Amino acid sequence: MATxxxxxxxxxxxxxxxxxxxxxxREFTGDELGFISKFKKGELAADAGATIxxxxxxxxxxxTVLTGWGFRYKALEDGRRQILNYIMPGDLIGLQGTIMxxxxxxxxxxxxxxxxxxxxxxxxxxxxxxxxxAFDITWMAAQExxxxxxxxxxxxxxxxxxxxxxxxxxxxxxxxxxxxFNGHSAIPIxxxxxxxxxxxxxxxxxxxxxxxxxxxxxRWQERACEVLDGETLAKIAGWDGLDDKVxxxx
Amino acid sequence: MATxxxxxxxxxxxxxxxxxxxxxxREFTGDELGFISKFKKGELAADAGATIxxxxxxxxxxxTVLTGWGFRYKALEDGRRQILNYIMPGDLIGLQGTIMxxxxxxxxxxxxxxxxxxxxxxxxxxxxxxxxxAFDITWMAAQExxxxxxxxxxxxxxxxxxxxxxxxxxxxxxxxxxxxFNGHSAIPIxxxxxxxxxxxxxxxxxxxxxxxxxxxxxRWQERACEVLDGETLAKIAGWDGLDDKVxxxx
DNA sequence: CGCTTAGTTGAGTTCGTTCAACGACTGTGG
DNA sequence: CCACAGTCGTTGAACGAACTCAACTAAGCG
Lengths: 250, 250
Known about the structure:
The structure is a homodimer.
Chain A lengths: L4 E3 L22 H10 E7 L4 E3 L7 E7 L2 E6 L5 E7 L4 E2 L1 H6 L5 E4 L3 E7 L3 H7 L1 H27 L2 H18 L8 E2 L3 H8 L3 H13 L3 E3 L4 E3 L2 H8 L13
Antiparallel strand pairs in A: 1-2, 2-9, 3-8, 4-7, 4-9, 5-6, 5-8, 10-12, 11-12
Chain A binds a DNA duplex through α7.
């Protein structure tokens, strides 16, 4: 399995961050931007399939996803795996490990991923000197909590078809907010990942996805899911969708 | 259904908070305590069964649970309900609503509950003047995220018996940390609540609980679950248990 | 060329569901 | 005081959703 590797060669200055111009993210003051720039230590690149963070590790760092898709998961001792949520550009990862000492979940890259690395030691400085950014971190933690609430509702109470529809609609909407699709709306994921997210077996996941495909809501590609009709997917799940407010990130 | 009502008659001073002496909670500086005392606006009492916060409401306040048990939940349009997590003394609630405008879940009391009410408007002051408390709020959000991760793993990947064992062991450990049991370790919950937490039907939940009772791990009471052997429950679920570090609260 | 990974499909089994009925207990109104 | 309804827990029977097992295609790679 491929592992992540540091990229010393290049550090995108925060002032030229490709994410900031997106309408989805809030504007920052020069002061905030200046601090974040100093807070940022470097960049890290991970290949598709690489483990970015591993459960049990005493993570030294905090990361923001710059590009790529990944997922957080936990596993039982006998290998049963549950995907908890997906990570995309702008998402903060490693907060649990930074704040509470030890990671309780692992993170793996779905596509090639690049990350901004922040210095854990400067986190207290951030809280002391930049309360607006501290508030942003809390905002992001609350947002993550909200997504987990939705996922829990989905796994606990929706049928297999509804669950699959919800998950794909969710990933589709998130991807669209971040401008991750150019024309073809393909989510880089295998059916095994979907199964591990929905709490279903691979076989049943496959049969469920076929039903969605038969309705022309999705189309399955090499190793990706193309979304043809996100609205109907959301409707099948009885899901309201994400709110479109501008959000912070580091 | 009973509703919550304000208690104007009495406001416990934070300096005499019954929770602070517990070894489970971290010590606070006089400065921090002074601010929290000013931050606290009053108290609120809710009867068992009362709805404390409702999905969709623009919550004006932030609360800390002083006494009692409750739960957070979400429901689908057709009534299917999923319990997301339980609330106990020291837990902060209403953060999502305060930070992001609108509550996305409801909260209901399991037993009579009393709450400290904080002024939402002073939250920015907290972030500006008391970074250590701001950090505490982030800590609590991250902790909630961690619990949701565990629940997700449980519902997604554990069998009915393992799920039930995990849930009861979890509630038992939390209750014990907070000194909520005096001799008899009874969790004030109905089988319907357990079913709505585990994502199972009431009938199958009942049959599953009977298996645990047959093994003398639990005993079912009037409207509560008495835990006889929390260790074995955790072992059945393959669950490591909560960490016992001291934690913050407001 | 064999080897691995991802996706597909059918057959039989198991786990959890729904439907239904019943006992115990509580509170309410006549 | 009793009759009645409501909640909570319990149990059996029949059904269905999702699982495991197994076999097979197609694509990618050393």
